[in-house]
Amino acid sequence: MTVVPQKWQLRCADHLLDLSSPRLMGVLNVTPDSFSDGGRFLDPGLAAARAIEMVAQGAAIIDIGGESTRPGAPPVPLEEERKRVLPVLRRLVRELPVPVSVDTLKPALMREAVDAGAGLINDVNALRAPGALEAVAASDAAVCLMHMQGQPRTMQAAPEYADVVSEVSAFLAHRVALCEAAGIGRDRLLLDPGFGFGKLDAHNLALLRGLSSLCASGLPVLAGLSRKSLIGRLLGREVSQRLAGSLALALAAVARGARVLRVHDVAETADALALWRLVGVSQTQEEDT
Ligand code: 8Y4
């Protein structure tokens, strides 16, 4: 009898992440300039305390980022990003019972991160940098392939699509094919439409409305909507006033089949998800094993 690998499990190096129900990825910014958490977690001790707190609140992955990817943010040199990320990563890999993700575009840091035990590489560039595919292929880590039109610095200047849902899906399908050809199995892949990355509000809303079609690829989909500026624009809210909007969009994503939510407010999102589940899980969420 052939053993078919179980669906909705993501292989993250030493961890198998169960995605049979939606999971939370808690954001841990280790940047001095983060829009959201302003330099609070540069110290590995404080970062570890926040990560432990997020896991206690229900995070199934912690995502460490040392380079701000918001529009207009200055690029961070490799050495600086290494100094921010690696001490925190080493500590979290030792102390946390969940996989640790590293948000980076840089292949050199990807290699060091997986060597240090990172379970997932979160690349907003979908492994397009020279050497990035190879860096992940040489590991057992999972990768989140995110769609972005343009480059972080300029992506919001003039986003343009004929059909945003099909263009994002086609881009991701191509990246998946390249990953598989490089030896990164489908059980290590997460897809992400990249809300806010080279998208106008109309594009973001169309992508969220059409998220089910991205989920139809059969690969797990991650949605990152937490506190994003589309909420700010649509509601007229500063970043500190975006929790309610974030929760609404999180549930809208889960309703359309998202399996991972990248969030800042783990406790609050966990409550929203818990009630969502109690109300009843849709076919799309529960079918297959
Ligand atoms: C306030 C708070 C305003 C946060 C803007 C932001 C994604 C991501 C980011 C995402 C994946 C952000 C690293 C942008 N967004 N990775 N990273 N998916 N996979 N902005 O959507 O949070 S950073």
3D structure, described in words:
β6, α4 and β7 form a beta-alpha-beta unit. With 289 residues, the protein is an alpha/beta fold. The strands form 2 sheets. The protein has an 8-stranded parallel beta sheet with strand order 8-7-6-5-4-3-10-9. A two-stranded antiparallel ribbon has the order 1-2. It has helices at 44-57, 78-95, 107-115, 132-137, 164-181, 201-209, 211-215, 229-235, 243-255, 266-279, 283-286; strands spanning 9-12, 15-18, 23-29, 59-65, 100-103, 120-123, 142-146, 189-192, 222-224, 260-263. α1 crosses α2 (78-95), α2 runs parallel beside α3 (107-115) and α9 packs across α10 (266-279). Helix content is 40%, strand content 16%. The two termini are 18 Å apart. It has one domain: Dihydropteroate synthase-like (TIM Barrel), CATH 3.20.20.20. The protein is globular and about 40 Å long. The chain binds ligand 8Y4. Ligand 8Y4 is lined by residues 35-36, 65, 69-70, 103, 122, 124, 144, 146, 192, 194-195, 222, 224, 227-229, 239, 262.
Secondary structure topology:
Blueprint (H helix, E strand, L loop, with lengths): L8 E4 L2 E4 L4 E7 L14 H14 L1 E7 L12 H18 L4 E4 L3 H9 L4 E4 L8 H6 L4 E5 L17 H18 L7 E4 L8 H9 L1 H5 L6 E3 L4 H7 L7 H13 L4 E4 L2 H14 L3 H4 L3
This protein binds ligand 8Y4.
Question: Brief overview, please?
Answer:
This protein is 40% helix and 16% strand. By secondary structure, the protein is an alpha/beta fold. Helix 1 links the parallel strand 3 (23-29) and strand 4 (59-65).
